[in-house]
Write a structure and sequence with these properties.
Mean pLDDT: 76
Low-confidence stretches: 289-330, 354-366, 448-458
Strand content: 5-15%
Largest sheet: 3 strands, antiparallel
Shape: globular
Structural class: mainly alpha
Number of strands: 11
Helix content: 40-55%
């Protein structure tokens, strides 16, 4: 019998591996596993997923460069019949023949979707990734060097998880038509590799997208931005009015601050009750069983008289006399009030009762959940509407006192003086152009915070255990949020922790303090990770070895701009 070639031997090994994986999955599902075995099963599965992600791109490249979509019907039938347990004879016969006539599939993407059952969009994405990370194919069918040379070298090395590389290549190639020069594209590849090697996958993708956006926005004239900005109504959809809001980054920070403060029980803890009452009042009518919130016969906050709602016929009632002059609030003392104001006050009729919506006594209204149990999106909308109601003409809504957005911008002073194009980012992580940052500086108060110095004025030693407000502001300016890698908790919801425990002689100092969210604060004191300070750098997290075998100090960069991450 003819011996198997190297290619055939590897195909047989892959077929046997699939059979082994299927058998293992069935075994692990049916048997009771020890905790360690179950965790190792999960780890191996994720490792296999990484390998399969790479194989998918390599297979797409192989299908495209070999012209597999031109295989004749007999060859495709033989492939399907061989399955995952082929004999040596079947493997030798799987070389295949391409038809000279019409093939079953018009191209590689069609073979992926039609034969392998992959959605056409996903098939095209795999082929594009193959062109970016393995080899590109010209219109004439010639193979050329990959579109992303630096990412391709890392992909070929097989030492890096391929999934962040695939996502980075897709993002860069998608933005290529909007990039100014090929040099910008190469710079983005270099920065993408640095981010992928230094950050977790989610943070690396976030920062890369921010870098791409900055490059594209830098080329857009102000007229183009103004042409797209605005508040757009999308009409009624499924019983709700839909709006689209496009704003500049320095204006978006007001909304981001509103969202952050609405979510933060520390900053508005005293107003949680008022926000809950406001929510209950706003949506009580819509929440009643059988009520239609859009029905005009079910008045809630309408200023239309009841009589005008009940009938469309013209009214024969006599017109109401003109209202009396409004008495200013300053005249609360009768001795200082003029005669006409005294007479108007004496003859002023009692205020009519506000009409109440009809409720069926036999139907018990369903209570809305507490404010904290509502979805974040609904909480944000409630706070925004409270601010808008407070600013309307004649409004007496206390909403303005509930949530007060605050814009905080972190500036790199040296870059600003040097005239850099990007030197500022908001507290909520929005990058600002130089023009937007200078606009905010003209319209807002500035709290100077000097970082990377000795911080002597801020160090108060052991005179106080808790970090005072001015020190918390310094920690917030430095850390931006919880410093645990991958955590998305902003600074306003974090707690200041001593790197050196207070009970062991630790001092309340900025350079020996760090922001941690409540969950990671407790985890740190439970011994699940450590905080260290090395080489005069800010405090960093040292993860356990099972999460970080290399034991590298790490800091969360979610709230930083991509430029700050690369500079660090």
């Amino acid at each position: 019998m003819e011996e198997l070639t190297s290619t055939q031997s590897h195909l047989l090994a892959m077929a046997h591996a699939i059979t082994a994986l299927d058998a293992a999955g069935s075994q692990f599902t049916s048997d009771a596993l020890a905790p360690g075995h179950a965790a190792y099963f999960a780890w191996l599965t994720e490792r296999a997923t990484q390998t399969l992600s790479r194989l998918q791109i390599q297979a797409a490249d192989a299908v495209q460069r070999s012209g597999s979509h031109q295989l004749d019907t007999e060859s495709l039938d033989a492939l399907t019949k061989a399955g995952t347990d082929p004999s040596d004879e079947q493997l030798i016969a799987l070389h295949g023949h391409c038809t000279l006539g019409r093939a079953s599939y018009k191209d590689a993407a069609d073979l992926h979707s039609g034969w392998l059952g992959i959605p056409h969009g996903a098939a095209v994405a795999r082929l594009n990734a193959a062109g970016s990370l393995i080899a590109a194919v010209t219109e004439s069918g010639q193979r050329t060097e990959p579109d992303c040379l630096q990412l391709a070298d890392e992909f070929a090395g097989q030492s890096t998880d391929p999934r962040p590389l695939i996502r980075a290549a897709h993002a860069i190639c998608k933005a290529t038509p909007d990039l100014a020069t090929p040099q910008v594209r190469r710079e983005l590849e270099t920065q993408a590799l640095e981010l992928i090697k230094a950050e977790d996958a989610a943070s690396a993708g976030k920062h890369l997208n921010a870098l791409i956006t900055e490059h594209i926005q830098a080329q857009r004239p102000a007229a183009a931005l103004f042409a797209e900005a605005g508040l757009f109504s999308r009409g009624m959809q499924r019983g709700l009015m839909v709006y689209l809001l496009k704003v500049f980054p320095h204006e978006a920070e007001i909304i981001e601050s509103l969202r952050a403060k609405t979510n933060n029980p520390h900053t508005i803890a005293g107003n949680r009750v008022l926000l809950n009452e406001l929510t209950q009042a706003n949506y009580a009518a819509a929440n009643r069983q059988g009520a239609d919130p859009t029905d005009p016969a079910d008045p809630t906050d309408s200023a239309v008289p009841t009589a005008a709602i009940e009938s469309d016929e013209p009214s024969n009632a006599a017109p109401e006399p003109p209202s009396s002059p409004r008495i200013p609030k300053e005249w609360d003392d009768a001795s200082t009030m003029p005669q006409w104001a005294r007479e108007a006050q004496a003859t002023e009729p009692d205020a009519p009762e506000t009409p109440q919506p009809y409720t069926d006594p036999d139907i018990e209204p369903a209570a809305l959940p507490p404010f904290e149990d509502l979805s974040p999106a609904l909480r944000h909308m409630t706070a925004l509407l409270a601010v808008l109601r407070a600013n309307r003409v004649g409004g007496k809504d206390p909403g303005a006192a509930l949530v007060a957005p605050q814009v905080i911008v972190h500036l790199n002073y040296e870059k600003m003086l040097a005239g850099a194009l990007s030197f500022a980012t908001t507290e909520n992580g929005l990058p600002l152009t130089a023009a937007a940052a200078r606009t905010l500086m003209c319209n807002a108060g500035i709290y100077p915070v000097v970082l990377n110095g000795k911080s002597q004025p801020l160090d108060i030693g052991r005179s106080k255990r808790l970090f005072p407000p001015h020190m918390r502001r310094a920690l917030a300016a430095r850390d931006r949020g919880c410093i645990y890698p991958g955590c998305h908790m902003p600074a306003g919801r974090c707690e200041a922790d001593h790197v050196d425990p207070w009970e062991q002689g630790g001092e309340t100092r900025v350079d020996r303090g760090a922001l941690l969210c409540p969950m990671h604060h407790h985890a740190r004191h439970a011994g699940l990770f450590s905080l260290i300070v090395a080489d005069g750098k800010p405090p960093a997290v040292l993860l356990p070895k099972f999460l970080d075998p290399d034991q590298q100090p790490r800091r969360n960069t979610h709230w930083f701009s991509a430029a700050e991450v690369l500079a660090a």
